[in-house]
């Protein structure tokens, strides 16, 4: 049997086994080439609706469509072999009713080949999560700073500093976990609160700007690679500075084209090297 045939994708069971164990490693991916590069190193690939801001230059995630998520989800599935692929449900595709959420989640899974969907919200979404899970749709929840609620929150800011707000996030996470979500992203939430939630819920918690005590971590790949430089959240660690590398490469290429240094004979067909 070939090595490729032996490769198996991570499943819900595999991810759940990380609870209180080795942390889950998750990165965003929106394209097949990036998925291929990340796949050997991560447990989960998130096709986040953050693609609206990262790839399409949108101000928020709100304009992202279901069709965009399906197309990018399919690309990431094609580019990966072993990581579990999770696709965000975009704004307006699941909030109306559990039935609407199921129809659209079924499209995401069947048309992209992804293994699970992610949706934002807490207590108000518990019925929908239960509805999806009972019908065979694996769900990742998302509480704390939820970007699709940016207008209601008055912007992107950390969550859970006041007791009333912290208590709401606790109830949100517990409700989503009890409804059957196998994992919950906790975003932009004060450290102690994220730590408490991780200890109290059955779902695997995946932090982004939360706590090292979470059962895993996720970051936007363009942030850690230094490709998306317009804004750097406090919780982002840069592991590379590819923006300058890309810019320098483009500048060198432009100079060589303008000076006719490129293409030289070695890059042309039917021309003998001098």
Question: What would you note in describing this structure?
Answer:
It is a single chain. The chain has 274 residues and is of the alpha/beta class. The protein folds into 2 domains: 3-240, TIM Barrel; 241-274. It is 40% helix and 14% strand. The chain has 12 helices and 8 strands. Strands 1-2-3-4-5-6-7-8 form an 8-stranded parallel beta barrel, surrounded by 5 helices. The protein is elongated and about 75 Å long. Mean pLDDT is 92; it is low at 151-156.
Distance between the termini: 49 Å
CATH superfamily of the largest domain: Phosphoenolpyruvate-binding domains
How many domain regions? 2
The backbone outline, from C-alpha atoms, is elongated
Helix content: 40-55%
Number of helices: 12
Low-confidence stretches: 151-156
Structural class: alpha/beta
- Please give the largest β-sheet: 8 strands, parallel, barrel
Rg, nearest Å = 21 Å
Q: Mean pLDDT score, rounded?
A: 92
**CATH fold field value of the largest domain:** TIM Barrel
Query: Order of SSEs, N→C?
Result: HHEHEHHEHEHEHHEHEEHH
What is the number of beta strands? 8
- Widest sheet: strand ordering: 1-2-3-4-5-6-7-8
